[in-house]
Amino acid sequence: HTDMDIPVAKKNSTRLLGQLSLIAAACLVSMNASAQTAEGSSDRTSNVGFTFGTGYTDNVFQADGGTSSGNYKAIGIVTDIDRESRRFRGIIQTDLAFRDYSNSGIDNEPWGRFDMELELRAVPDRFSWMVLDNFAEGTTDPFLATGPTNREQINVFETGPAVYLPLGQLTEFRVTGLVGERSFDDSVELDSDTTSTTAGVFREINSTTELGFSFSSRDVEYDLTPDADNTIDSAYFSYDKQLASGSASVSFGINEVDYATLSDDAPFFDIAWNRDVGRRSNLAFRMLNRFIDAGEQFRGRGEDSRDTVLSLDVFEEQSAGATLSVDGSRTTMAF
Q1: End-to-end CA distance of the chain
Q2: What residues contact residue 65 under an 8 Å CB cut-off, 6+ apart?
Q3: Which residues on adjacent β-strands are paired with residue 220?
Q4: At a CB cut-off of 8 Å and minimum separation 6, what does 236 contact?
Q5: E strand map for 24-108
Q6: What is the SS3 assignment for 14?
Q7: Distance (Å, rounded) from C-alpha 87 to C-alpha 84?
Q8: Distance from C-alpha of 13 to C-alpha of 181, rounded to nearest angstrom
Q9: Which helix (DSSP H) or strand (DSSP E) does residue 159 occupy?
């Protein structure tokens, strides 16, 4: 290939190093917790793998209205760790690779996703401290083809307490409070701090069914664009049931978004159902309507956020979908 000078956005290597430190620390903590022999401890899942390979792309960058191809080498890590003891729960799911491009001027990049949830149960069933982190990549300009020069890393970090207070034998009051930071490598106008609070009363109808009513509020304060600061409030009823071979949940209510000078409201609902349809097959369905912004779409395990439009706007997400997954002895397929 011919080397060319290509303007490339500067990447924040410090944040990536911090992310790697988080991965290492989380792995050590979860493995240590699972090694405990205290009564009630369990080792749910512990899969760690490494990937090596090379690839080719015909859209490594765009210049003068055209595209250029290139090769890359990649080394990656894949983890599915779920460990639990009486005082600890740790989940780490990783599918992350580091790509080294052959083209001069193209920065090497991490590609993939890392999700972590840690729950430190200081007082089991009463008080916990949560640490959540989600790392992924998004498309900087949705009107251009996705590639290493039009892709950036996003990190969403949150931490805070969760309190569970019994109100009799079958009713419980739950409240969580999280403070967070959302960091974008290139779209720095989206860098923001968040404060999220959820409080609800839940009643156990039987051993497999629970009803609840909750109120949640999330404040977003942008570092560089304070005029876009907003608050999203939601009030909703919930129904959760464990089935013999799956689960079902329904939440419905209303959500409202408030800016400094205007507000809007819309119905809120989240309907989810999944069931095992064979020894190695699972069918899942979800329908959702809610207010959300770009940073919130990178929050949560397993969320596919690569098509997220990086914008300051809050929008109403309306989605519905179904997934069929089949697990073989050596192969997994999802549709």
Answers
A1: 38
A2: none
A3: 194, 230
A4: 213, 214, 251, 252, 253, 254, 255, 268, 269
A5: 42-63, 66-85, 88-101
A6: helix
A7: 8
A8: 17
A9: strand 151-166
The pLDDT score that the predictor gives to residue 153 is: 87
Q: Give backbone dihedrals phi and psi of 95, rounded to 5 degrees, phi first.
A: -145, 80
Nearest CA to 98 out of 112, 78, 116 is that of 112
CA nearest neighbour of 111 among 79, 151, 164: 151
**Alpha-carbon distance values, 317 to 38, 68, 306 (Å):** 44, 35, 16
Instruction: Read off the pTM.
Output: 0.81
Q: What is the DSSP letter of 296?
A: G
Per-residue pLDDT at 171:
96
Return d(Cα 289, Cα 263) in angstroms, integer.
17
Mean pLDDT by 10 residues, the chain (335 residues): 36 48 52 48 71 79 64 87 89 88 76 90 94 88 77 91 95 97 92 96 96 97 92 97 94 93 92 90 94 87 68 89 83 75
- What was the pLDDT predicted at 147? 75
Helix %, strand %, coil % for the chain, to 5?
10, 65, 25
- Cα–Cα distances in angstroms (integers) from residue 16 to residues 3, 244, 300, in the given order: 27, 43, 19
Q: What DSSP element (H or E) covers 242? A: strand 230-243
Site of tokens 């969403």 = 156
Among candidates 151, 288, 319, 296, which has minimal Cα distance to 232? 296
Residue with structure tokens 């599918």?
95
